[in-house]
Design goal:
Length: 172
């Protein structure tokens, strides 16, 4: 049997099983006693979709209003004329052929790679290196875009890719 603290039991008494709005849920969570560790919150949403239907899959990217709590290191594959704008918007490295050679040489000190559609022919060589790590630019997750500077600033601030192709349904 699991031991529950007095604080936990007291907070559980204030909860109810009824669904509440997001703003009310946030107010309730903030009213709980503080702890000595970083707490996490699980949010359960009923979307009312059928995951077996291809047109009802949930996929996209979302920019969180206050980021994700840490800065992401973003590199940008772009043309030479865009390098200054991309670096000023938050990229740690920008370029095309030099950056491809650097990554081929083993440099992988970044979290997200963003690319312009015009340079994807050269970036495609990196598929075997970046693909298994999930860093290969892809139009599905919004990392291939014509406005590279805007994409770099969004991903550096904490843009998150969301993909739910399988939803777990309750058994009872």
């Amino acid at each position: 049997m699991r031991f529950r603290s007095k604080r936990y039991k007291k907070d559980c008494e204030r909860l109810s099983e009824d669904p509440v709005s997001v703003s009310e849920a946030v107010e309730r969570i903030k009213s709980f006693d503080s702890t000595k560790f970083d707490q996490s919150i699980e949010c359960v949403l009923q979307l009312g979709i059928d995951p077996k239907q291809a047109d009802q899959l949930v996929r996209g990217s979302i920019s969180l209003p206050h980021g994700i709590g840490k800065q992401k290191k973003v590199v940008a594959f772009c043309e030479d004329s865009d390098i200054e704008a991309v670096k000023s918007s938050g990229a740690i490295e920008a370029g095309c052929e030099e950056l491809v050679e650097k990554i081929t040489g083993g440099w992988m000190d970044f979290d997200v790679a963003v690319a312009s559609p015009k340079v994807m022919g050269k970036v495609g060589k990196l598929g075997r290196i970046l693909g298994p790590q999930g860093k290969m630019p892809s139009p599905k997750n919004g990392t291939i875009t014509a406005d590279v500077a805007k994409a770099v600033s969004e991903f550096a601030a904490g843009k998150v890719a969301v993909s739910y192709t399988h939803l777990t349904l309750p058994t009872n």
